[in-house]
Backbone:
């Protein structure tokens, strides 16, 4: 079967959306399908086009990926991001409508919903079924976080969301709790859960000797406990402001080092808050093969999620599963009492701390680092839990059942 995968994030970007799509594409190709990916020139999260993609249109013939031009503003703003999404909506629609590739089915990933909207319109014009992978509930989360405030814009985005949901032949979600929310919105097609996960063949624990080797290569301290945050410094779900505030309360912990892996528009502001307060290092975003080794050389993973008012279904961060996969215990901030809490309790791989509580977060980080047995056992429990329930490859293969059911 010929499949067009319409995505806003893809390789070589390393974010959760990109990785999820990459594994879906890999699973489809391994099943014998011909897959073409249409995506913008890589620029996330820093808002700068990656080297080698600077000029015009680029087509990766070997992997059948079309990288399309996109408008990228010089300064980050909600309006600028809107123009970025609009530019890809236009360039991708034009490209796909006149492309010689004739798909039997279209798959798209949301957010942003403007990309999914373009894919749905194309599917209707080409009279082909569309499968929508809804990774996050937008615009719902954007409204809850206060990112989107204009009432007219909220109303307009909800209309788009409703149009997309009602147009989908099949809908994929990353959590069971999403199913009910999307069904209530008026979905006509079948809703299937395919969880996120970690590739346990890539994300795996290191020996003591291997950990020391990685630390030496990155000039990280051998004689200190290292807490790692890996992810983006932007206006998304990661509460890096809370993390910075908690870190500044740990100035007396001389045996503690923080490692930050990632980039984003708020990175400089984040560093200004913690500079000269604690021992820390920054590492640029890394591909999975390198990232897995670096985080496995640490002792604890800290994941600060933002507080969300009202229910949006909750979600389990990919970085949580990847941390567990390498044997790291996790401290996660969340007020979710639903599926996320159930998963966390079953994993026995760390502790959940309430959001908006930097004092509590700092205290838990400090206390956990003193508990050698907890660090070891929680990491082992987490690894076993991911192997049994959230292996990325096994989850991604489920997409072939959906294709075969069309």
Residues:
């Amino acid at each position: 079967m010929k499949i067009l995968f319409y995505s806003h994030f893809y390789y070589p970007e390393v974010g959760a959306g990109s990785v999820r799509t990459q594994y879906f594409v890999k699973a489809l190709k391994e099943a014998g399908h011909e897959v073409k990916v249409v995506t913008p020139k890589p620029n996330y999260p820093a808002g700068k086009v990656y080297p080698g993609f600077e000029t015009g249109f680029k087509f990766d013939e070997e992997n059948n990926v079309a990288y399309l031009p996109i408008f990228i503003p010089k300064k980050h703003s909600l309006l600028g991001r809107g123009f970025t999404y609009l530019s890809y909506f236009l360039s991708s629609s034009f490209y796909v409508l006149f492309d010689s590739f004739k798909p039997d089915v279209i798959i798209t990933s949301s957010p942003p919903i403007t990309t999914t909207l373009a894919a749905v319109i194309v599917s209707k014009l080409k009279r082909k079924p569309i499968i929508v992978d809804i990774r996050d509930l937008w615009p719902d989360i954007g409204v809850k976080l206060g990112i989107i405030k204009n009432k007219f814009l909220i109303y307009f985005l909800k209309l788009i969301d409703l149009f997309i949901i009602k147009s989908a032949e099949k809908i994929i979600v990353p959590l069971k709790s999403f199913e009910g929310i999307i069904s209530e919105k008026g979905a006509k097609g079948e809703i299937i859960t395919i969880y996120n996960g970690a590739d346990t063949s890539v994300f795996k624990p290191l020996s003591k000797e291997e950990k020391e080797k990685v630390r030496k290569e990155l000039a990280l301290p051998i004689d200190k406990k290292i807490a790692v945050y890996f992810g983006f410094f932007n206006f998304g779900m990661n509460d890096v402001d809370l993390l910075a505030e908690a870190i500044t309360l740990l100035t007396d912990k001389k045996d503690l080092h923080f490692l930050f892996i990632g980039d984003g528009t708020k990175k400089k502001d984040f560093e200004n808050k913690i500079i000269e307060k604690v021992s820390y290092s920054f590492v640029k975003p890394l591909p999975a093969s390198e990232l897995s080794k670096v985080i496995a050389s640490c002792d604890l993973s800290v994941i600060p999620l933002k507080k969300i008012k009202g229910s949006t279904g909750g979600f389990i961060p990919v970085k949580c599963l990847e941390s567990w996969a390498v044997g790291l215990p996790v401290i996660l901030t969340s007020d979710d009492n639903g599926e996320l809490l159930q998963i966390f309790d079953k994993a026995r791989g760390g502790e959940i701390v309430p959001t908006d509580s930097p004092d509590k977060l700092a205290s838990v980080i400090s206390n956990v680092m003193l508990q050698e047995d907890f660090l070891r056992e929680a990491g082992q429990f987490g690894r076993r839990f991911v192997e049994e329930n959230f292996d990325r490859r096994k989850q991604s293969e489920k997409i072939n059942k959906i294709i075969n059911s069309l």
In short: The domain at 2-197+391-404 is CATH 3.40.50.2000 (Rossmann fold). The radius of gyration is 21 Å. DSSP finds 16 helices and 14 strands in the chain.
